Every structure is written in structure tokens, then in C-alpha cells.
Amino acid sequence: MAGHDYEAVKAEIKKIVPNDEYDDGSTGPVLVRLAWHASGTYDKETGTGGSNGATMRYKIESSDSANNGLEHARKFLEPIKEKFPWISYSDLWTLGGVVAIEAMGGPVVPWKPGRVDDVDDKYVPPNGRLPDASQGAAHIRSIFYRMGFNDQEIVALSGAHNLGRCHGDRSGFEGPWVPNPTRFNNTYFKLLLHAEWVKSKNSLGNEQFYSDDGELMMLPTDMSLVTDPKFRVWVEKYAKDKDFFFNDFSAAFAKLIELGVTRGPEGLALRKYSTVARARL
Ligand code: CCH
User: Fold this and answer.
1) Ligand 1: nearest atom to the Cα of 135
2) Number of domains within the chain
3) 177 classed as catalytic
4) CA-based angle 123:129:130, to the nearest 5?
5) Whose CA is nearest to atom 15 of ligand 1?
6) Model pLDDT for residues 106-159, shown as the tens digit of each residue
């Protein structure tokens, strides 16, 4: 919005990405996950959910087990909200993901400001709208089609698993997908295709896939991207061509963080359900 210095906010976010005391030395992956989970509740049929509103501030949504651990990301961003109180949480959380992706060597993702935070928990989407990692291709399709994504976009977005790791105490899964999880790349796709993956129960009793040396992992949903022939086509393309992956990822992530954002003539997000969606509810 006019008069607000978003470049200054971006510079502050960039500073908090390297962090020796957290995980693999970076807050970047968990910031990306916050932007994704804040947006991925969208349902195109009802127009509910999505990044506008920052509804994860409310207990109903923050206590969805899918969001375990995202309190770290929200806390990392809090001093920035204090420094720039004019920015909405919904803008800050989505911008956090975008800045983190770039800071970790990923593509520039187009981002627009103007989201408006809800003032109460009236429009918090129900729990259970985010994907369940223990399932397969049919489940992922139903979740991402509900948001309005196609197969190509689903595979591109899944490439975010080149970043970060699973934490047993948050999700029940353990370990990173790639050897260098704080650098964005297409290694995830290469490993999906070319490493040997063995299914085994982890220390918490959940099935996941392990590499030969047991250092790297894949979730059942990740493996479905290579076993499903229509998903696999895109995995092969992205494994071969990093620039092609980065372009597709950038477009799909930009679309993700705009879900649920209806913009008026000046680009400002309209209050939730003020238009078509309200009529449908
Ligand atoms: Fe993811 N993801 N994700 N993911 N995810 C987890 C961690 C990250 C699924 C499950 C999990 C996307 C799609 C899916 C990230 C970005 C994206 C974890 C471990 C699980 C489980 C959480 C923990 O233990 O901390 C499933 C299932 C799907 C789809 O089917 C998409 C899309 C994105 C972004 C575009 C990132 C980044 C992480 C690492 C977080 C961290 O804290 O290191």
C-alpha cells in the first residue's frame, strides 16, 4: 500500500533467516511452511480459508495438529511485526515465506501486499484441510484440487521439501529430505527418482521411507509423486531442469499465497466474504 516501506520489512526478515540456534542454522524452512499452511486451508467452492485474515492467530486453527511447530515461525516474525505495526499478520506471514525462499537461493516469488487480518475467530476454517503425509496420490489430489491446483502445480509445490526437515514431536515423522536442507534446489526430485528408498517404521511407529544410509527420508505422500504416472512426468522434468522447476515453483507459490484474497480496485484485499463467497455461505 502507498506510503508503506515493504522493502524495509523484507530486509528485516532476511536478517532473521540465518539462525545458529535453530534447526539446521536457518529459520527459512519453517517460515516457508507457515506461509503455506496459512494459505493451504483454502476451499474454492465456498471461498473460505486461505491467507487473508491470518486466522492461524486463533486457537482453533493454531491447535490443528498439522500446524504443530509453526508457533516457532510466528515467534520469529513477531519482533518484525512490533517494528512495523502497520503490516498485517497475513501480509507478514506470506512475505516471510517469500523472503525465506529467496534468501535460501530459491526463485523470486511475486508478492502483493494488502491482506487484512480478521478481528475475531468467526471465519476460522475447520481443522483437517491440510494434507495427511501418511496417505497417497488420491488424497493429495483431493486436497490440492480443492484449492484450485492441477497436477503440475502440485508437484512443483511439493519441491519445497527440498527445504527443512520433519520433527518427530511435531508431525510424527523424522529427518530431512536432502543433505543440504537450507539451500533451495531440485535435489528433492533427483533423490526421489534416483535414490533407493526403503519403507520402514520410524521410532514413533509411523511408516516413512529411508535412504540407504538412513540419513534422508521421504513421506508416503512424497513417494506417491513417483509411483503415480501423471505426477511422475513432472518429477522427471523438474529433476532434469532446475530453472524450469524454479519458474513453476515461483508461479505456484505466488498463486498459493493469494488464495482467499479478493482484491478491490486499489489492490487492497477486501474484508472476508464481503463478496461472492458470503452469498454462498
Ligand atoms: Fe510439507 N511437510 N507437506 N510442504 N513442508 C513438512 C515439512 C515441510 C506435507 C507434510 C509435511 C508442502 C506439502 C506437503 C514444507 C513445505 C511444503 C512436514 C514435517 C510434513 C509432515 C513437519 C515437521 O515435523 O516439522 C504434505 C503431506 C504435503 C503435501 O501432500 C508444500 C506444498 C509446501 C510449500 C510449498 C517445508 C518447508 C517443510 C519443512 C519445515 C521445517 O520446519 O523444516
Assistant:
1) 27
2) 2
3) yes
4) 125
5) 33
6) 999 999 999 999 989 999 999 999 999 999 999 999 999 999 999 999 999 999
How far, in Å, from the CA of 161 to the mean position of ligand 1? 6
Please state the ipTM of this predicted complex.
0.99
Q: Which of 36, 111, 177, 234 is flagged as catalytic?
A: 177
For the stretch 22-69, pLDDT in tens is 999 999 999 999 999 999 999 999 999 999 999 999 999 999 999 999
Q: Is 101 in the pocket of ligand 1 (CB under 6 A)?
A: no
76 C-alpha to center of ligand 1: Å? 18
Q: Which 3 state secondary structure label does DSSP give 5?
A: coil
Range of the domain at 26: 6-130+253-280
Sheet-wide strand order for 217-218: 198-201, 207-210, 217-218
Sequence letter at residue 153: E
Is the separation of the CB atoms in 48 and 90 below 8 Å? no
Q: Tell me whether residue 148 is in a domain.
A: yes
pTM for the model: 0.96
Task: Classify residue 263: in a domain, yes or no.
Answer: yes
Is residue 76 within 6 Å of ligand 1 at its C-beta?
A: no
Residue 144 resides in a domain: yes
Say yes or no: 120 and 171 in one domain: no
